[in-house]
């Protein structure tokens, strides 16, 4: 990678980090009394969007090893955040769902985050909002490329 590519990579990482930190600071955490680690929050967010995943499916979607997800699941089950439900077709497979109280908290948190980001977006010019919207497909492809690179041995 040439110098400009390295600078772009650094700029992307710095900007995304600022977005995450700013959003987290403005919106708080869904479980303030028992803060979850970043990886735990990612699993919770994944299960909010995709209830009923198996450990292997969740690991694939997150781009991490299944034993990493197993550890996260064990921790979150102990905290009462996630429940394991037997698969109807294969009772040996556990499906992962958010506990009812956890789901309600995550929905409120997600709504709060969306409002905060929406308010911040509304302070930008129409051109800035259009640029951000136009960049989303490329950012999604970048995320996919990073997941693919991680699954080829460059990650976990």
Topology at a glance:
Layout: H1 3-27, H2 38-49, H3 55-62, H4 66-78, E1 82-86, E2 94-98, H5 100-122, H6 126-154
Antiparallel strand pairs: 1-2
Helix pairs in contact: 1-5, 3-4
Question: Could you characterize the architecture of this molecule?
Answer:
The structure is a single chain. The chain is mainly α and 156 residues long. The chain is 71% helix and 6% strand. It is globular, with a radius of gyration of 18 Å.
Overall radius of gyration: 18 Å
Q: Got a strand count?
A: 2
Task: Figure out the total of helices.
Answer: 6
Specify the helix fraction band.
Answer: over 70%
Keywords summarizing the entry:
single chain; two-stranded antiparallel sheet; mainly alpha; 156 residues
In short:
The chain is mainly alpha-helical.
């Amino acid at each position: 990678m040439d110098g400009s590519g390295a600078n772009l990579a650094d700029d992307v990482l710095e900007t995304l980090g600022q977005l995450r930190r700013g959003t987290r600071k403005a919106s708080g955490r869904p479980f303030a009394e028992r803060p979850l680690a970043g990886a735990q929050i990612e699993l919770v967010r994944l299960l909010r969007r995709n209830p009923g995943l198996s450990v292997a499916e969740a690991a694939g979607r997150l781009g991490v090893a299944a034993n990493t997800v197993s550890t996260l699941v064990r921790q979150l089950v102990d905290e009462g955040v996630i429940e394991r439900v037997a698969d109807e077709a294969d009772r040996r497979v556990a499906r992962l769902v958010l506990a009812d109280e956890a789901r309600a908290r995550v929905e409120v948190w997600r709504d709060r985050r969306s409002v905060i980001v929406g308010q911040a977006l509304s302070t930008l010019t129409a051109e800035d909002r259009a640029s951000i919207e136009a960049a989303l497909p490329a950012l999604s492809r970048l995320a996919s490329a990073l997941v693919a690179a991680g699954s080829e041995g460059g990650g976990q």
